[in-house]
Amino acid sequence: MLNLENLSKSFRGGSFGSGAVPAVRQVSFSIAPGEVTSLIGESGSGKSTIGKMILRLLPVSSGRITFDGVDVASLEGSALKEYYRKVQGVFQDPFSSFNPVFRADRIFRMLEREYFGDLGAREWSAKLHTSLEAVGLNPADVLGKFAHELSGGQLQRLLVARALLLDIEILVADEVISMLDASTRVDVLNLLAGLKERGLGVLFITHDLSLGHYISEHTVILRRGVVLEIGETAKVFGNPQHSYTKMLLASVPRLHSHWEPLEPGEPARTGPRDAPRGRGRRARGQPLEPVPLLVEVEPGHLVAFEDGGTATAGDER
After folding, report:
1. Backbone angles phi, psi at 315, to 5 degrees
2. Which of 81, 149, 282, 293 has its CA 20 to 30 A from that of 316?
3. In what order do the strands lie in the sheet with 19-31?
């Protein structure tokens, strides 16, 4: 199991990098085998930063990430290589993951050299074909092709197939379908949903609430790097407690419903009267708001405490 414990990340900012800009603040949640956890938030909320820290693409400022009880930050050499054998990521833009100069299946040859050098050519070919077929690709259609000869959906499936070759346990899927057309999105979503049947844990990073609701067992609502609501997906979506979660749900376009025209001077926002307005930026010199306590409002459902809000009962976390 992958655990995030009070995870925080700050970047250098201000004049000559003398200041610190917090991107993630004291985030805690777990990714269990055979389950999909959706990390949902607007652009700039820190979702991808969390994914990159899990993949060791960014260092952690404070807190820790553990995998099977071992602190990921302490891994080096062969131990880090073994970690990447079990934890892999697939990102938003499939085209940027491939060097246009080389054929797309070069990513498999690199993997073969690093992890499967002891396999014979016939064994490797059989393993590769099995992995491609598991993600719905015909090896004859994709092997030997350049990236520009394949569709975005095919390239994303190649990246998932690459991860499956390693017999991974955790997949970080960062906005993996945001650049795909509607018909291809469903195929990739169903592919990700099928991975949990194989015992994989998936972190599904998205800004789209409907996709998160469709695919995940657990949901984490993130805003400005802080967890505002977390729990079983059916409870977070069926009984939202935080005003920000309510605003997000109220802002989802609905089929056969018309947007109500705004009155002159009315702010362009949708949601409860007390919902927060947009992301905004902290004014220079303005102190950070404290990270709110998470309150358990029902079993398996925690909400950040709001002054005057509804999250007033249960255990503090």
Report:
1. -90, 140
2. 282
3. 19-31, 2-13, 62-67, 70-71
User: Which residue's structure tokens are 């169903």?
Assistant: 190
Q: What ranges in the chain are assigned the alpha helix state H?
A: 47-54, 77-86, 106-115, 121-134, 139-142, 152-165, 182-195, 209-215, 233-238, 243-250
Which are the contacts of 91, defined by CB distance < 8 A and separation ≥ 6? 97, 159, 174, 175, 176
Question: How far apart are the C-alpha atoms of 86 and 215, rounded to whole Å?
Answer: 22
What gap in Å lies between CA 61 and CA 53, rounded to an integer?
10
Question: Considering the entire predicted model, what is its pTM?
Answer: 0.81
Residues found in the chain = 317
Just give the CATH number of 2-99+168-253+268-304. Answer: 3.40.50.300
Q: Using the CB atoms, write b or e for 32-48: b if 16+ within 10 Å.
A: eeebbbbbbbeeebbbb
Copy the structure tokens of residue 135.
């993600």
Amino acid at 133: E
Count other C-beta atoms under 10 Å from residue 191's C-beta. Answer: 19
| Cβ–Cβ under 8 Å, residues 37 and 219 | yes
**Which residue(s) pair with 19 in the sheet?**
13
Give pLDDT tens digits along the chain (317 positions): 899 999 999 988 766 666 788 899 999 999 998 899 999 988 888 999 999 999 999 999 999 999 999 999 999 999 999 999 899 998 888 888 888 899 988 888 888 888 888 888 899 999 999 889 888 889 999 999 999 999 888 888 888 888 888 878 999 988 887 766 676 677 777 777 777 888 889 999 988 888 888 888 999 999 999 999 999 999 999 999 999 999 888 877 776 666 665 455 444 444 333 444 444 445 555 567 788 889 999 998 999 987 644 443 444 45
